[in-house]
Predict the 3D structure of the following.
Amino acid sequence: MEAAKFTPQDTATDSKLHFLDYWRIIQVRKTVIIAVFLLVVITTTVVTYILPKTYMSTAQIEVQKDQSDIPLLLQGQQQSSYDPYFIRTEFEKIKGQRVLYPVIEELGLSDILSKRYRLTSKLSQEDTFQIIKKTIDLQETRNTSLIEIRAFSEDPKEASAVANKVAETYQKIRLETRRSSTQRGIDALQLEFTARSKKVEILQQKVDELRKDLGVSDVGDNSQVTLEPETMRMFERDRVNAKQMFAQSKTLHDELSGMTRMELRRVIPVSAPDEALGAHLRDIAKTEQQLAQSRKDYSDEHPEIQKLTAIAVTLNKQIEDRIDGVLRGVQVTMNRSKSVLDELEKAVSDAKKQDGIKMENYRPYFSAKRDLETEHKIRETIFLRILQETVDDKIPKNGMVDIVNRAKPDERAVRPNVPLNIALGVIFGLVIGFGLAFFIEYLDTSVKTIDDVERALHTAVLGVIPQNVGSLLEEGPDSPHAEAYRVLRTNMLFGRKDPKANSVTIVSGGAGEGKSTTIFNLAVVFAQNGSRVLLVDSDLRRPSLHKIFNLSNSIGLTNYLLRQNTLEEVVQRTAVPTLDFLPSGKLPSSSLGVLSSAQMREFIKHSKERYDFVFFDSPPIMGVSDASILCSEVDISLMVIQYRKYPEVMTVRAKQMVDKVGGNLIGVVLNNINISQDSYYYYYSGYYYDYYSKHDDGDKYGDKYGDKYGDSYEGSSKKRDPKKVKDAAEPKVEIKQKF
């Protein structure tokens, strides 16, 4: 069995196989599809031509709520609006016994149906009603008040007669119902108006007696006519003013009483202005100024000085007397305000008492008067309503139900619809036929879901890789495919039991499952994360990793294991600084078992010490023993399973082979998943795929690598170019040594 070659077009091949599998199902099950299709179509056609012809006639009516043709006096134009609940209610009324029973009687439908069905006895009215009800269909025109009454019958004339009679009967019943209900309402209002009129007469007599007995001078329409409330409000207003004046005078008196004489001279002219005191203060200020000026020229014994001194003494005495007078005046004002306040408070109290007494005496009168006014209003309202309903009953109401279009006999049958029935038979025949064929696809044993893997292999699924995955060196670290491998990297690190386990190989049951793609991109992701990584192409029979790197494969792992070159000579650097690559080299036919040698085990041990992680590519485990050898020598093994490609039994067998050689299989990678179409995997790991910008050129890697390496990459849609294959096998690129 040939070893798998990795190319970016692996996923394209898998996708083609996926669709070819469905085409194969159609080819195998074409007999079932054709048989089911013909059976459904023939049955539909026969039944269609056997069914009796049915004719339909339609009468269209306009239905409005109960209203008059013209608005009443003092009312605006009545507005009609679409009411779905009203329309549905009228539907039920039209198909009810109250409408259909008269239709059955007037058209003699019981006799007609009895003859049509060849019955020995006449159908009862209820049986005829149940039959006619099923032959009538009601439809409404959207957002309008139009109703279509559709009647179906084997006789076109009978259908038109039933539709028209239903419309006429419904119109007649609506008008009679409105007229009778209005008359009943008017009669009830008349009785209530008579009772209210008698009650008004009794209350009016009672009010007149109370006014006479209590001596109430009721000259207005207000219920409160006494003078006490107005007097009380006047006294209360004066009391508030007096209280304010008393508070002001008391505050002034208290402040002035606590001041010294010098402070009073400064404050009184402002707070309690006095004309005489102001004149004395101006005179004393002038005299003191003259006295001070004279003392500069004369001694104290000078007559001028003595004169001015005597005047100053007199003025000071007058000022003190005036201040005492002002203080007494403030006190008198305060006392007077207090007296006025006390009198007003007493007057308010007396007014309240008088008002309470008056209101208590007049209460029966005012209570009776309010009752009389209420009854007057009720009686007037009833009278206006009687007048309104009486006038409204006389106005025509033909607009409640208006027959817009009458039904006419139709010579073209509406049932059965031959073209439609045959077309539906064709569609359902194809759907059922293909559905039955594709149902068999679900009975196969290929791997389809994560649950299938975990149930069959008892191993966790560490990663789900989408379709159209290419080289992450070309796509870049921000591609949506890179996130899938970062998820795989994280799960692999958490899945290993020994933190020192750093040598990894990836195996698969068959060729073309994406093994080389997975290990290459996984190594790139580890290197981009900062780890020193060595990627070894140990698929000695069909190496492919050197083509992705575009490096030479002239020397490599086989040369080192055969001791033809040193490790420093065979290890090559890549575009990623922390990623080194060891190609497979040329494998002589005499050295097929070189991977099981002691030199290989020594190389694995040596490389694990030099690098953080070492990745080994391998051939399919079911075809070549090299994969089993690698599984037994490395620390960790992963298994790649192609989605919907190989039977589940093959996958189980591959896992058993890993277990037999003592390999440490920590998980499984599902490859080539169409996440955008398979909702199972979309919810599992497809969120990051939509988060990043999607590539519109999903096959660009397949075409690119197909052009470069021919069809060595699985999925290439172009033919092998021998020249390009040769150039790819021996690229003219200088080997970049690691050491």
